[in-house]
């Protein structure tokens, strides 16, 4: 059996559907050649155990494995039994939040292929083989935007499209969200960029009519931070990091925020959910994640205006604390690594 856990790095969204899993080497061609009922390709939202059970029950109903009047848990069991005794199927478990929720299914359904998508970057060692996904390349982002704009016919004006993709950090969800909005509003790319600059709070949560509202940049951000509420320092750290350059931020800047275990826990959990990228000495944050963290939104508990203002002050204080007492004095070598370009 082959099992992959696909995750998108340095973004605030889960991998969902073929838009992301297509970056893995095998699924599109493999799935396209297996469309018969005895070789099903089945997608299940797997955020929670209840979602997983409902998806398996729906599979049992689609395969007519049992009367649909049976309780969901019994239908789900019939589906698992079928998967464990048949070959050639592909099961997509989307947005798994805890590897433990799917371990039993993966162990029992070992005769087909399972593709798991998740925001989590750790915890897969005994469940699946992780396949990290980075942001799109500039060419891929432009191709995605063009495909969205041409889906309803016509030849769109691509002036400014490359600049827009760059501003969006080449995140698939952001490009998709922007493309849908531009197509429906008949905007130019420069016009959308102006809206994004002048009204970031509204635009990050604004979706096209056919775009699921729960799959906007702002909503995915909120869902992820909701799952980190048991580590309050995590949100604070992210809001502070939003005020620095996106890459190579010295981890020592965060030392004043708490005890070493507290700071390490906040950084570790943010990295586990791919909100930041952590190395031994530095941190990186995607520019769009930073932009969201700086855009106040009274409807989002993680982006309250007062918290963002406080984060700006804390970011300044942390930077000042790391600055040598006399920057003109080169005799303080301890300050060189943090201040090096």
How are the elements arranged and paired?
Elements: E1 2-8, H1 18-21, H2 27-32, E2 41-45, H3 49-62, H4 72-85, E3 90-94, H5 103-108, E4 113-117, E5 129-133, H6 138-150, H7 161-167, H8 172-185, H9 189-198, H10 200-204, H11 217-226, H12 232-241, E6 249-250, H13 260-272, E7 277-278, E8 282-284, H14 287-294, H15 305-322, H16 336-339
Parallel strand pairs: 1-4, 1-5, 2-3, 3-4
Antiparallel strand pairs: 6-8, 7-8
Helix pairs in contact: 3-4, 6-7, 6-8, 7-9, 12-13, 12-15
Structural key phrases:
single chain, 341 residues, Rossmann fold, 3 domains, 46% helix, globular
Give a written overview of the molecule.
The protein is of the alpha/beta class. It has three domains: 2-133, P-loop containing nucleotide triphosphate hydrolases (Rossmann fold); 138-215; 219-322. 46% of the residues lie in helices and 10% in strands. β7 (277-278) and β8 (282-284) form a beta hairpin. α6 (138-150) crosses α7 (161-167), α6 (138-150) runs parallel beside α8 and α12 (232-241) packs across α13 (260-272). Residues 6-32 have low confidence and may be disordered.
């Amino acid at each position: 059996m082959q099992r992959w856990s696909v995750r998108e790095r340095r973004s605030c969204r889960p991998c969902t559907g073929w838009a992301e899993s297509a970056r893995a080497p095998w699924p599109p061609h493999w799935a396209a050649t297996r469309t018969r009922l005895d070789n099903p390709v089945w997608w299940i939202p797997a955020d929670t155990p209840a979602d997983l059970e409902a998806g398996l029950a729906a599979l049992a109903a689609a395969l007519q494995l049992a009367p649909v009047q049976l309780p969901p848990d019994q239908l789900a069991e019939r589906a698992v039994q079928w998967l464990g005794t048949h070959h050639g199927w592909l099961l997509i478990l989307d947005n798994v939040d805890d590897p433990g929720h799917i371990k039993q299914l993966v162990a029992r359904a070992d005769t087909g292929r399972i593709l798991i998508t998740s925001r989590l970057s750790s915890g897969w060692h005994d469940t699946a083989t992780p396949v990290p996904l980075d942001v799109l390349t500039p060419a891929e982002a432009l191709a995605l935007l063009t495909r969205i704009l041409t889906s309803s016919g016509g030849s769109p004006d691509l002036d400014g499209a490359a600049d827009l993709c760059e501003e969006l950090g080449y995140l698939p969800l952001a490009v998709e969200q922007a493309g849908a909005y531009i197509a429906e509003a008949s905007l130019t790319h420069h016009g959308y960029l102006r809206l994004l600059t002048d009204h970031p709070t509204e635009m990050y949560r604004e979706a096209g009519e056919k775009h699921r509202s729960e799959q906007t940049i702002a909503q995915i951000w909120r869902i992820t931070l909701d799952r980190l509420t048991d580590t309050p320092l995590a949100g604070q750290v992210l809001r502070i990091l939003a005020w620095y350059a996106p890459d190579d931020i010295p981890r020592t800047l965060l030392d004043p925020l708490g005890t070493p275990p507290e700071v390490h826990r906040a950084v570790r959990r943010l990295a586990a959910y791919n909100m930041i990228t952590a190395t031994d000495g530095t941190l990186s944050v995607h520019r769009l994640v930073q932009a969201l963290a700086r855009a106040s939104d009274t409807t989002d508990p993680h982006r309250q205006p007062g918290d963002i203002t406080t984060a700006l002050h804390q970011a300044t204080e942390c930077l000042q604390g790391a600055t040598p007492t006399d920057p003109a004095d080169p005799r303080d070598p301890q300050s060189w690594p943090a201040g090096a370009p």
